[in-house]
Amino acid sequence: MSLERMIKNMAGDAKRASRAMRSLESGQKDDALLKMAERLLSAREIISAENQKDLKAARDAGLSAAMLDRLTLSEPVIGAMADGLREVAALPDPVGAVPGMWKRPNGLLVGRVRIPLGVIGFIFESRPNVTVDAAALCIKSGNAVILKGGSEAIHSNMVLGRLLAEALQEVGIPEKAVQVIPTTEREAVNALISMEDEIDVIIPRGGEGLIRFVTRNSRIPVLKHYKGVCHIYVDQSASLDMAKDICFNAKVQRPGVCNALETLLVHEDIAARFLPQMGKQFQRAGVEIRGCPKTLTLIPDAVTATESDWPAEFLDLVLAVKVVGSMDEALDHIEAYGSQHTEAIITNDYDRSQRFLAQVDSSVVLVNASTRFNDGNQLGLGAEIGINTSKLHAFGPMGLEELTTTKFVVYGQGQTRK
Amino acid sequence: MSLERMIKNMAGDAKRASRAMRSLESGQKDDALLKMAERLLSAREIISAENQKDLKAARDAGLSAAMLDRLTLSEPVIGAMADGLREVAALPDPVGAVPGMWKRPNGLLVGRVRIPLGVIGFIFESRPNVTVDAAALCIKSGNAVILKGGSEAIHSNMVLGRLLAEALQEVGIPEKAVQVIPTTEREAVNALISMEDEIDVIIPRGGEGLIRFVTRNSRIPVLKHYKGVCHIYVDQSASLDMAKDICFNAKVQRPGVCNALETLLVHEDIAARFLPQMGKQFQRAGVEIRGCPKTLTLIPDAVTATESDWPAEFLDLVLAVKVVGSMDEALDHIEAYGSQHTEAIITNDYDRSQRFLAQVDSSVVLVNASTRFNDGNQLGLGAEIGINTSKLHAFGPMGLEELTTTKFVVYGQGQTRK
Fold first, then answer.
1. Based on the domain organization, do B85 and B143 belong to the same domain?
2. Lowest pLDDT segment from A107-111, A260-264, B14-18, B64-68
3. Residue A388 falls within a domain, yes or no?
4. Phi and psi torsions of B228, nearest 5°
5. What ipTM, to 2 d.p.?
6. How many CB pairs under 8 A join A and B?
7. Nearest CB partner across the interface for A406, out of B23, B117, B395
8. CATH number of the domain bearing residue A361
């Protein structure tokens, strides 16, 4: 059977499964998630054995220690996956909610009802535990999902997918609601993103290259962000202690993630009081500062920022710093170089706080808080399958509700159109 | 200047205009719409002169009388465009609404705020008055728009675009917020749908060929429906008088539109009482019936339906009719052949009405009402820029709110991530 035919069959199976999932009770979905947690814990040895195959191949291929660490399904990681399943089971079911209902002058009662999207194609490069996290959110929101993970994790992903499908079957949900593509061939991605008749949305998670490839070639709508070039603007009215805490947290707490700070913009009126101390604090933590000419005069060991540093997502202990003459200059800089992901202002000026919130065109805009809060859990969505920086469907972190849509239901008494 | 360079410049201008439009007051946008209405009325002769150029070319090219009629900007059509602008001005502004705001345990106040999408690329084949209708909705929702109309209406579209832009300038809104692409070259569509850095969404309206082309080739998210293969299922418990009124209205009132009835499904228990009379009523109105074998025994002049009739969007006085043994058979038929656009059940059975509403996966599902109600105005959205049958962003008719998205705003007091 050709690869394309296999993916087509999987997509057809997923579509049929999704039809059954439309009318599942919440309890049945939650049961499935709890059974999945049990199965993962009781199958620890089986999971570990499959994971060892991936780890051996990775070692043979000379992958870095960091990569091997990310690939490892240790006891604590398996425990965390099971906990994650139980947490998703405990969240409210988004399906069936009625965000609005109204009566028309002709007596028609018109409502919007929340429904699953249908079939989700999830393409990822990250750790194998993402298989479980993503499947949990898809099942809870009533969707079927087809997962295509990284080739280095194929055995781990497949055994996890099989355990999840078995749990579905145990509670009477079609097992094809969770399917892992059983091949490492890159062409599987091309096939998956062309199944427009079966798949409703593609969510890619990984490097910018993968995401651009998927976006350019998909016939199916894609929810994604390319990168997070996050800015903090420290206003002349800012509490400098607060500014230091927030900027340090945003850059250093976890530099390798998309909501970490990449460029710091500082108003010139406070630059001389703020940047020398801030610079020292960063440099003590090993952060390399790449600054504009004014920054270089205030942070001795900073290096000169080049034009390519302003739109850069360093994902590392590197920070671009620029002194600006006004908030408008900061807004222009963000407009020119930002990625519409996350931007924050540190200020005690009421008017400028409001203007920054209104004018910055990013999925999350914060006043006096760390950019690291752009996260579904942190913002109160309960969970997160990813962040979307295209404006369509869901701008920002996507939780369970963002894996649904609404349809119109109309209750009539014989009405016809005049 | 190359075509691609010209479109790139237009897209850049639109993006800059959209930045200014983010923070417009409602009153300023409404002023612009009212000034547009005035300008159209006072420029009737100029509009008519440009329209005559298109009409002459169309006559020379041998276009049908129906096509010429659709192309004509008569005094009543110009009056209707002005009325449409005033109606959109009177609608509530969707921008700035806060659909939700909540406090997190750490004290962060998190809210969702409704914002414009940004820049909309609108590609259409229909009458030139659509230029005005679409621009009005985009401006009211705070978006910039680039319009690419049909080549046969180029002079009409361009003069309308110019008048709208002049009205924007008059009230201090960047005139580049409304731009009509000044060429009939088909390649302009390819260029437009590749401007992913400037344009946020593409909305195509026209034939299925155009829409499939745009969806396959766009790098920008697309909101669209291919076709409307709308079904009515007449249940064994239906009031047959009500069923006749609704089916007749859905098929005959305006057969050339996407929410018109295309396939009628009838429960076998009432087929013998319903179809002979219904068939006569349809045939008196000139409707050709293409039926299943059972239908043929009940409607004498019906012709045999072929497999290609079931997924067909006739857009004409043609109707496919099938007798089914159960509602489940009707649901299976809709699942197999429907277009997820609009489906209705005629019934007096409570349980089946609820089951039909829950299980049919279409953007609008109705009980005891005509499919013709799938329309933004009719459902109470105030206006409509189109209907979307992909699940993403907005499933069903799209009004002003569907031309916006939400971003997260976060009010902190110095919070950092633990």
1. yes
2. B64-68
3. no
4. -120, 100
5. 0.94
6. 211
7. B395
8. 3.40.309.10
Which of B215, B411, B415 comes nearest A219 by C-beta?
B215
What does pLDDT average to over chain A? 96
Give residue B55's identity as a one-letter amino acid code.
L
Q: pLDDT value at position A256?
A: 92
Closest by alpha carbon to A66, among A330, A256, A298, A344? A256
In this structure, the answer to whether residues B194 and B235 fall within a common structural domain is: no
CB B156 within 8 Å of CB B57: no
Option in B102, B364, B393 nearest A408 (CB) = B364
Query: Searching chain A, which residue's CA lies closest to the CA of residue B201?
Result: A392
CB A396 within 8 A of CB A365: no
* Distances B367 to A34, A119, A412, B232, B344 between C-alpha atoms, Å: 37, 27, 6, 10, 6
- Identify from A213, A370, A413, A416 which residue to disrupt to test chain B contact, counting B C-beta atoms within 10 A and taking the largest count: A416
Phi, psi (deg, nearest 5) at residue B73: -100, 80
Select from A102, A113, A391 the Cβ nearest to the Cβ of B405: A391
pLDDT of residue B383: 85
* Same-domain pairing of B236 and B115: no
Residue at B39 is within a domain: yes
Contacts of A391 in chain B (CB under 8 A): 117-118, 200-201, 405
Query: Quick check: is B388 in a domain?
Result: no
Contact B294, B326 (CB under 8 A): no
Cross-strand partners of B205 = B124
Same structural domain, A216 and A286: no
B209 and B273 in a common domain: no
CB contact under 8 A, A391 and B242: no
Mean pLDDT (chain B, rounded):
96
Q: The whole model's pTM is what? A: 0.94
- In a mutational test of the A interface, the residue from B230, B407, B411, B413 whose CB has the highest number of chain A CBs within 10 Å is B407
DSSP 3-state percent helix, strand, coil across chain A (nearest 5): 45, 20, 30
Output the six-digit token pair for B22.
């983010």
Instruction: Report chain A residues whose CB lies below 8 A from the CB of B417.
Output: 249, 253-254, 370, 372-373, 378
Residues B291 and B341 both lie in one domain: yes
**Sorting pLDDT into bands at 50, 70 and 90, what band is A1?**
confident
Phi first, then psi, for residue A107 (nearest 5°) are 95, -10
B365 CB neighbours in chain A (<8 A) are: 407-410
Measured CA to CA, the distance from residue B295 to residue B90 in angstroms comes to 49
Distance from CA of B48 to the nearest CA of A (A): 31
Q: Which of A387, A408, A411, A413 to mutate to test the interface with B (most CBs of B within 10 A)?
A: A408
Task: With beta carbons under 8 A apart, name residues in chain B contacting A223.
Answer: 392
Chain A interface test: which of B190, B360, B404, B408 (most A C-beta within 10 Å) = B408
Domain region containing B214: 3-223+402-410
Q: Distance (Å) from the C-alpha of residue A49 to the closest C-alpha of chain B? A: 34
Q: Nearest residue of B to residue A365 by CA position?
A: B409
Residues A145-190 have pLDDT tens digits of: 999 999 999 999 999 999 999 999 999 999 999 999 999 998 999 9
Beta carbons of A102 and B221 less than 8 Å apart: no
How many domains does one find in chain A?
2
The residue among A379, A385, A373, A378 whose CA lies nearest residue A88 is A385
Q: Above 90 in pLDDT, residue A383?
A: no
Contacts B219 to A, Cβ<8 Å: 215-216
Is the pLDDT higher at B186 or at A295? A295
Identify whether A17 is part of a domain.
Answer: yes
Check which CATH number belongs to the domain holding B126 and give it. Answer: 3.40.605.10
Is-contact A338 B407, C-beta < 8 A?
A: no
Whether the per-residue pLDDT at A66 is higher than 90: the answer is no
Q: What is the DSSP letter of B238?
A: S
Residue B94: per-residue pLDDT:
96
A81 and A186 within one domain: yes
